[in-house]
Design goal:
Number of helices of chain B: 5
Strand content of chain A: 5-15%
Radius of gyration of chain B: 23 Å
CATH class of chain A: Alpha Beta
Distance between the termini of chain B: 54 Å
Number of strands of chain B: 7
Helix content of chain A: 25-40%
Number of domains of chain A: 1
Helix content of chain B: 25-40%
Strand order of the largest sheet of chain A: 2-1-3-4-5
Bound molecules: iron/sulfur cluster
Largest sheet of chain B: 5 strands, mixed
Structural class of chain B: alpha/beta
Distance between the termini of chain A: 39 Å
Order of helices and strands of chain A: HEHEEHEHEHHH
Shape of chain A: globular
Largest sheet of chain A: 5 strands, parallel
Oligomer: heterodimer
Strand content of chain B: 25-35%
Chain lengths: 180, 176
């Protein structure tokens, strides 16, 4: 079955999925500061059925909120792979899009979708809560239409993603006192 | 300068010849010393109440082939600050540790080793502190080119050029 074809059960499931999104926000960069106002009473994203989630295994949505150093990217990939399908990724801010102001840094990557599939980007440095809410709405719409299938792309193009990860990181495994 | 800073400076001048003192501010002065006199100066200042090592860092003076090591000492009694600076050879980037005076220096020295390639005799803990799998010359040396490295390792997004759009901007049909 190709990525865009869904059977009736999947279509029903997608309706439900889009209405209960648990979000793991990996606050890598400054853009994350726009999340508290998006969550709290003024913009109140819980009215969409969204909420923050603490662990990757319970989360549907992975929010990468800014610049990623190679060190962080290793953890991000590890976290992404721990999330169960279906899973969605939002790249937040220009740093995830094209490196932003860190485009020439020796330690930060320049585009996130080269390493893990990104369903949606929010442009801006940093995006305002309105943009964040707009992006969540768009993502929900995409899920209902079956367009948010980065998780399928990741499986289908696993070798390509792995190759890119290895090229920039040398190795994806993490060696530090917490993972040995 | 505050009187306690003056007292400390007197002590330094009496004990060690060849120090250059630059007054920066009411509560801030820079002391430039030869590398062999650095530790004595630091320990005199530490004895005079400037016992907080706020920072140990380095500056790469590539043209002069030198690294400048900078120790910033702070006094909690009068808020005075001394910047002790010394030059070491860039080719043979080695100095002695100050871990016996400030245990925290271990991490500053690890950082300097990682980012400038400076070794510190007496500090055997030279594991990388921040970088993982680093595979080039230390990244804060001036002869390291971060843009080149980034291009090599982290591919960029390619944008398609819209020539018609650009031509319209040039012609003034639309504002770019
Ligand atoms: S895009 Fe801007 S706000 Fe977001 S992480 Fe990068 S520098 Fe910070």
């Amino acid at each position: 079955m190709s990525a865009s074809e869904r059977n009736i059960w999947e279509k029903i499931a997608d309706q439900l999925r889009s209405r209960s999104m648990w979000m793991l926000h990996y606050c890598t960069g400054c853009g994350a500061i726009e999340l508290p106002p998006s969550m709290t009473s003024r913009f109140d994203m819980e009215r969409f059925g969204m909420g923050p989630m603490a662990t990757p295994r319970q989360a549907d949505l992975f929010l990468i909120t800014g610049y990623l150093s190679t060190k962080t990217l290793r953890r991000v990939i590890k976290t992404y792979e721990q999330m169960p399908d279906p899973k969605y990724v939002i790249g937040f801010g220009s740093c995830t899009l094209n490196g932003g102001i860190y485009f020439d840094s020796y330690a930060t990557i320049n585009r996130l979708d080269y390493y893990i599939p990104v369903d949606l980007y929010i442009a801006g440095c940093m995006p305002r809560p309105e943009a964040v809410i707009e992006a969540f709405n768009t993502l929900m719409e995409m899920i209902r239409k079956g367009e948010a299938n980065g998780w399928k792309r990741y499986k289908e193009n696993y070798e390509w993603y792995k190759k890119n990860q290895l090229r920039s990181l040398g190795e994806v495994d993490i060696h530090d006192e917490f993972h040995e | 300068m505050t009187s306690s800073m003056n007292n400390a400076l007197e002590k330094v001048k009496n004990a060690i010849k060849n120090v250059k003192i630059i007054e920066i501010d009411e509560r801030e002065a820079k002391i430039e010393v030869e590398s062999e006199n650095t530790l004595p100066v630091l320990s005199i200042l530490k004895g005079e109440g400037y016992f907080h090592l706020s920072l140990l860092t380095a500056v790469d003076w590539m043209e002069k082939n030198e690294f400048e090591l900078i120790y910033i000492l702070y006094s909690w009694n009068d808020g005075g600050k001394f910047i002790v600076s010394t030059k070491i050879d860039r080719e043979k980037a080695e100095f002695v540790t100050v871990m016996h005076m400030w245990p925290v220096a271990r991490f500053y020295e690890r950082e300097l080793h990682e980012f400038f390639g400076i070794k510190f005799a007496g500090n055997n803990d030279m594991k990388p502190l921040f970088l993982e799998n680093w595979d080039d010359i230390p990244p804060l040396r001036k002869d390291f080119d971060p843009l080149e490295y980034s291009k090599k390792k982290f591919p960029e997004r390619e944008y398609q050029k819209d020539i018609i759009h650009e031509a319209k901007i040039i012609r003034g049909d639309i504002n770019g």
